[in-house]
Amino acid sequence: MTTQTRPDRAIAPASPARPIASWGLGDGQAIPWEYAPAPEARDLVKLKDRYGLFIGGREVAASDGAYFTSVDPATELPLAEVARGTAADMDRAVRAARGAFRRRWGRLPGKERAKYLYRIARILQERSREFAVLESMDSGKPIKESRDVDVPLAAAHFWYYAGWADKLEYAFPGRVARPLGVAGQVIPWNFPLLMLAWKIAPALAAGNTVVLKPASTTPLSALLFADVCRQANLPAGVVNIVPGPGEVGMSLVRHPDVDKVAFTGSTEIGRKIAAGVAGTDKALTLELGGKAANIVFEDAPLDQAIEGIVNGIYFNQGEVCCAGSRLLVQESIADPLIDRLKDRLATIRVGDPLDKNTDVGAINSRAQLEKITELVASGQAEGAEMYQPACNLPERGYFFRPTLFTNVAQSHRIAREEIFGPVLSVLTFRTPEEAVEKANNTPYGLSAGVWTEKGSRILAMVKRMKAGVVWANTFNRFDPTSPFGGYKESGYGREGGRHGLISYVRLEDR
Ligand code: NDP
Predict the structure, then answer these.
(1) Catalytic site residue 321?
(2) How many whole angstroms separate alpha carbon 42 and alpha carbon 40?
(3) Would you call 391 a catalytic residue per the annotation?
(4) Predicted TM-score of the model (pTM)
(5) Catalytic residue (choose from 321, 418, 489, 495)
(6) Is a pLDDT exceeding 70 seen at residue 227?
(7) 232-253: per-residue pLDDT in tens?
(8) Of 140, 269, 157, 282, the residue nearest 213 (C-alpha)
(9) Which ligand 1 atom is the nearest neighbour of the CA of 371?
(10) Can you tell me whether residue 484 is helix, strand or coil?
(11) For 158-176, what is each residue's pLDDT tens digit?
(12) Mean pLDDT of the 361-386 span
């Protein structure tokens, strides 16, 4: 959607949640128009009142019988009750995983494991609408993202790793790849199903069994995945899913019978997890926070760059570890680029995640909304200039306007801290050297973007930037064949691609 309306002259919104658009008549007049609501059907999902833990192939209650409520962040209404796992439940799950590893999965030939993974991939595709709707209800992300990105990519990871299951000798030529045993996996709330797939698919392909703890605000797609495991006749205990609070995640990390720990989430909790496995022989991968620089040179294709900037920071409400949250723009084009960016922001549609036209949905939780609000207030207090497009937000739910800060100094908190929200900080540079210096001036090192028409400049920049992924003339693109991971405080280890298998195998000489 495009509009001629400049945000500072924007007409008042017609409906509470929508920016208004208009068709120019060519004579200075305009006909305002509005998208009709296009809600996806919620009844594609048969929500149960209560969900148990998934241990040993069965749905079971928590050891103390406790439940917690999963809430729809767009309405603040409860969706379902979920069994709240305990340390005793984690122990039960690890024992189930160990038993399945010893008796069955660890001995199964790769081509047999592959069949299960293919089956899971196919079922995810068959049930993709159901998964997409549930994911949007539980996490707040727009349906067009869960439908077009999260769920297809989750299935693609199972397809991809199914392909490796019987080819490990080619993945690691001259070596014998043995599974590690039981993998303990703790995942966040920003891509609940996709992070599950990133973790479970390579683990199973390599012959490990898993215990997974989903985030407390988004347990439902993992519990629906438990249903997929049953449907695929996956042997009992190969996948176990135990929702519960952070300390229950720590009991999984510290469990003596866990061989490998994989975590995605905040750097703060990542540090605790690293301390939790220190002194043991557990394998560990950490995928943590980021503060990515998206660098736009004066020769960049501006229209594409604007879309890349928008996708880089407003995709998934900015709740993305590799979000392009720092825009570094070459000084000579800063003014026109920022003007065009503001115009583009005015067309972003914030609102009901289940509406197919929504670009920015609900923030995942009240706590996250408060964190974003506090950091944005700090940006204003420290002297940066804030711009938000003229759009009202729904009365209920956790929503935040797409936000742009100019006059940002590198010392400002909004330029240093991971906001994990739809907030972009714009800085400028004059030379490539200055761009590299500013891009690397962060304790994180997860991702970056470069926009220029010169291939040689892309290569020169990529070499000098300390980031696990550097996108060139695009941003936030993912593929199961491509490794992903960070440097510095963004963690260590890689997920995706052949690299993603390495952390789930022990390599022995032939
Ligand atoms: P956390 O890092 O706390 O949560 C990630 C996962 O770790 C969740 O499953 C969480 O469980 C679990 N967890 C929490 N505490 C512990 C613990 N002591 N031991 C083991 N597992 C634990 O992220 P938050 O949800 O608190 O988000 C805070 C900030 O972290 C965000 O604002 C954002 O900046 C960053 N973040 C980064 C992510 C990334 O992908 N890099 C993803 C999510 C957040 P539970 O949900 O029950 O607390």
Answers:
(1) yes
(2) 6
(3) no
(4) 0.94
(5) 321
(6) yes
(7) 999 999 999 999 999 999 999 9
(8) 269
(9) 32
(10) strand
(11) 999 999 999 999 999 999 9
(12) 98
